[in-house]
Amino acid sequence: MTRNDLLWVEKYRPKKIEDIVGNEEAKASFVEWLKSKRRTKKAILLYGPPGVGKTALVNAAAKEFGFTVIEMNASDTRSEKAINEVAKPATAYIALDSFSVGSKGNLLFLDEVDGIAGNEDRGGVGAIVKIVEQSRVPVIMAANDPDLDKLRPLKKVSMLVRFQQVRIPRIIVLLQKICLLERVKAEFEALERIAQNSRGDVRSAINDLQSLSEEDHVLTLQDTVMLSSRNKDVTMDETLRAFFSAKSIEEVSTLLRYSSVDYDDFLLSVSDNLPKRYTDPDELATAYNFVSQADVFRGRIGTENWHLLKYFFNSLAEAAAVAPESYKPFQFISPPIRIITLFWTKGKRTTLNNICAKIGAQCHVSIEIAKHSFIPYVKSILQKQKGGPIASWLKLTPEEVDFLIKMGRF
Amino acid sequence: MVAVLSKSAFKLPRVEKEKFVLLLRLGLDYNREQGVFSIKSYNNIEKLMDTIGSVLGTEVVFMQNCTRCGRDFPCSECKYNDLCATKNLPFSCVCSQCLRGRKQFEAYLERF
Fold first, then answer.
1. Nearest CB to A22: which of B43, B83, B90?
2. Same domain for B58 and B69?
3. Quick one: which of A176, A246, A396, B13 has the fewest CB in 10 Å?
């Protein structure tokens, strides 16, 4: 791999603490803790959003102060056994090389500790707490979300240092520096857009810059148009707006590829909103034809045939581009009517299920059979004879009796 | 009105014991000899600023230090103020003049 093939995030990975952009106070607290000979807490937990320099700081500081990093990250199994195998020897003894000039021994770094979960990592948090208590070397942990209940024991034994998103001006400056070093010409507005879309994540900003940069080409604001939908959690409304206002099939296909909305909800929403989009019956019929095709593909995709997703996207894109010139802004129906209906009828469905469960228990049938074969008759009997013996025999409450009597179609 | 404070040392009016304890718990440090507060921990900066604001009866703003020209400036000067998720912390940023100024940028690069 030549130097030019390197990912820029690797190429420009901070080598020194001062190279890390932003979070000056957090860096200072960490360095003070690491340099201290009498630490009040044996461990430190660096927490904050991804791409703000937590891991980079640990590696840069270790290099600068002469520590050897023993690292366990999310790719390793971090069960009690695995942690004890790796971390215990690293923390229980002072490494021999710590007596050599310029070396301060080991440093245990547990990255992404909030990712310790599931059966594979069983007992991991408890093992870390024990190691921290017995450790003779600094223990550093990093997490994105420190508010998880499972991390509470770790927080008790650690000093907490919060990292924040890196500010837009600081990211722009970094991108300008990289552009200069890589001989990339870029408009200020393009870098500004990349920085804004990164949401304080330096790593993603550098990746975006590299993916958009080409030799002998000036990076313009126009080049960054698709970034807004790649990095943001695009809401259903935003996706629908872009979908219905699209000028071509290609535009819709690209939008759908980058959007992260739930496909089933999106299909329902498109179906609900089509009559608002196309007022001409012929156009509406054509669009519904494409939506039904998309629905067929969605069914075939199921949970595993994702290679068919492009056909689903294509069909939807064709539905959006039946008559691009006729688009007029309208108020979207979102979330889908079906979802709203299910939400509003949840209470009623729960009550009906409870009644069916009581019928099922008395008549020895399933809830489904009670719902379809018994409820119409029970309802009819109760409508004629509200306080009759059937209500007490089925152990129905007065509210349930009222519900059944007033109940419409189910 | 907005109170602009310096992170290294600022004075506050006399507060009750509970409030004083709360301020220290949230991350302030008190220098007995000089009678000034400074920020020791930044983990609860938002709550800390709200509490200082309630003591002063006004919105509190910390000055930002430009990493390029060294000038102190408030966040309100920045065009990204509305988009910024980390207002007031850290206390260093890049001022708007330096951000677009080519000569300043070249001077900054020379440091590397």
1. B90
2. no
3. B13
Least confident of A38-47, A66-75, A169-178: A66-75
State which residues form the domain around A60.
Answer: 23-162
Name the H helices within A143-248. 152-156, 168-182, 188-197, 202-212, 227-231, 236-244
Burial B41-73 (b: 16+ CB within 10 A, else e): bbbebeebbebbeebbeeebbbebbbbbeeeeb
Q: What is the per-residue burial (b if ≥16 Cβ within 10 Å, else e) of A103-136?
A: ebbbbbbbbbbbbbeeeebbbbbebbbbbbeebe
Instruction: Give the number of domains in chain B.
Output: 2
Assess whether B70 and B57 both reside in one domain.
no
Are B86 and A196 an interchain contact pair (Cβ–Cβ within 8 Å)? no
Average per-residue pLDDT in chain A? 82
CA distance B92 to chain A (A): 8
Please enumerate residues of B whose Cβ is less than 8 A from a Cβ of A. Answer: 41-43, 67-68, 78, 80, 83-86, 89-94, 96, 99-100, 105, 108-109, 112
Mutate which of B7, B43, B45, B103 to test chain A, going by most A C-beta atoms within 10 A?
Answer: B43
| Residue pair A88/A139 in contact by the 8 Å Cβ criterion | no
Q: Are residues A31 and A152 in the same domain?
A: yes
Residue A4 located in a structural domain: no
The mean-pLDDT minimum among A226-230, A292-296, A325-329, A403-407 falls in A226-230
Considering the domain boundaries, does residue A12 fall inside one?
no
Q: For residue range B12-33, what is the model confidence (pLDDT) as tens digits?
A: 888 889 889 998 988 888 988 8
DSSP SS3 for A99:
helix
Which three-class secondary structure state does DSSP give residue A44? strand
- A322 is written with which tokens? 């039946």
pTM, to two decimals: 0.59
Residues of chain A in contact with residue B99, where contact means CB-CB under 8 angstroms, are: 169, 172-173
Greater model confidence, A42 or A260: A42
What is the largest distance, in Å, between two alpha-carbon atoms of chain A?
96
- Looking at the fold, whether A39 and A151 belong to one and the same domain comes out as yes
**Strand order in A67-72's β-sheet?**
A67-72, A105-110, A139-143, A43-47, A158-162
The residues of chain B scoring below 50 in pLDDT are none
